[in-house]
Design goal:
This protein is of the alpha/beta class. Helix content is about 40%, strand content about 20%. The longest helix is centred in the first third of the chain and has 13 residues, at about 10-25.
């Protein structure tokens, strides 16, 4: 049985209580916050950084590299912050046409 469950939400306030219920079922929530074709990858990074302040090792996050404008520096910064908190990161590696 897959020990995870994807959770999508439009706000941190929404996703944290839902993910806590998943943890209470002995599963690991995978939180997905994705914005396609954004012109502001820094805003997406800031939202992810706010999110991971609420998370610990029981959580996983899924990221779409296009949400960060394929900016490797931004993605690396987010991943390093997750590593620091022992949060696993699942990367949806899309094709970069740039």
């Amino acid at each position: 049985m897959w020990p995870g469950r994807f959770i999508a939400g439009n706000s941190i306030k929404h996703v944290i209580p839902v993910s806590q219920r998943i943890i209470n079922q002995s599963k690991h929530p995978i939180i997905n916050y994705a914005i396609e074709n954004t012109n502001n990858p820094n805003q997406v990074l800031e939202e992810h950084l706010r999110l991971i302040k609420h998370l610990d090792y029981k959580y996983k996050i899924a990221i779409k590299v296009s949400s960060f404008g394929f900016d490797e520096d931004i993605i690396n910064h987010l991943v390093k912050c997750c590593i620091h908190k022992n949060i696993r990161v699942i990367i949806d590696a899309e094709q970069n046409s740039h």
